Amino acid sequence: MKFSGIRWLFVVAVAGAGLAGVISSNVGCGGDSDGKAGSTGTAGTSGGGTMGGGGTGGQKPLKLSYTFDTSGASDSTMWKLNDYVDASPAKNLGAYSKPDAGLNLTDPPVMEWSPDDSESSTTSGSMKISVTFTEYGQYVDPVINLPAPVDLANSTLSLKIRLLSGSFTSGGVQFHFSTGAYVYSAGMWMDSTTFTNNSWKVTSIDTATAVPATAGAEFDPAMTVQVGIQITAGSMTTTSTVPAGRLVFEIDTVQAR
């Protein structure tokens, strides 16, 4: 298992009222490859949603679902850029949006709702992340903190992501989830070279085989508390270059069955 070479963020937030089924406003529905441990930070906390029904067509029932159908849906408003200040200067570009961090960035990352949809639907949308990397090792980490632990044991987490515009010349993307005291595990490393403009990619994590990034840490997918996806500029090599200009990504259909 590859883990991103930048610092992973364990986002600690105050949980709201409990919600254990499907968490959604809809019915039914880095770095490099030599990983390091992470730190604690803050980000948005998810609120309530709609409890999901059973599965259809022989599928398992949905346990989580974020489809970003409208700009005002809880799906769209409760995902945040992790804003933990990890270094000086911060490599986590989401930290520059933290009001009390006292940091300034000429071209900070932006996370916003987009009317584009992975299923070409005219009544649905996705989450758009725009970021400009200026150094190796910089990253953004869109996350959602669940209002109460969700049982994702023996489940499959999945999402769709695409590079809408920009030149992603180094680095990559990694889907991740955290359990208990924010002990995280990551999915397959998606190298920047696999991203082509406007082509949706699907990535998933099998929680039954997932392992914690920190060996021996207490890790229990039945107590999942956070889901996120990290986008990083990578590390310097003899052939790499820092991604130039503004990169625009879209994320859609984050689900667990």
Write out key terms for the chains shown.
single chain; 257 residues; mainly beta; seven-stranded antiparallel β-sheet; 2% helix; 33% strand
What does the model show?
- This protein has one domain: Jelly Rolls, CATH 2.60.120.260.
- The protein contains one helix and 15 strands.
- It has one helix at about 75-80, and strands spanning about 10, 40, 65, 80, 110-115, 125-130, 140, 140-150, 155-165, 170-180, 185, 190, 200-205, 225-230, 245-255.
- The strands form three sheets. Strands 4, 7, 8, 10, 11, 12 and 14 form a seven-stranded antiparallel sheet that branches. Strands 3, 5, 6, 9, 13 and 15 form a six-stranded antiparallel sheet that branches.
What's a quick, concise take on this entry?
The protein has 257 residues and is an all-beta fold.
Distance between the termini: 22 Å
Q: Count of helical segments?
A: 1
- Mean pLDDT figure: 80
CATH domain topology? Jelly Rolls
What shape does the CA trace take?
globular
Largest sheet: 7 strands, antiparallel
Write the CATH architecture name. Sandwich
Beta-strand percent range: 25-35%
Low-confidence stretches: 5-53
Count of extended strands: 15
Q: Name the assembly state.
A: single chain
> For this structure, what is the CATH class?
Mainly Beta
Q: Which superfamily, in CATH terms, is the homologous superfamily? A: Galactose-binding domain-like
Indicate how many domains the architecture comprises.
1
Share of helix, binned: under 10%
What is the string of helix and strand elements? EEEHEEEEEEEEEEEE
As a whole number of angstroms, the C-alpha radius of gyration is 17 Å
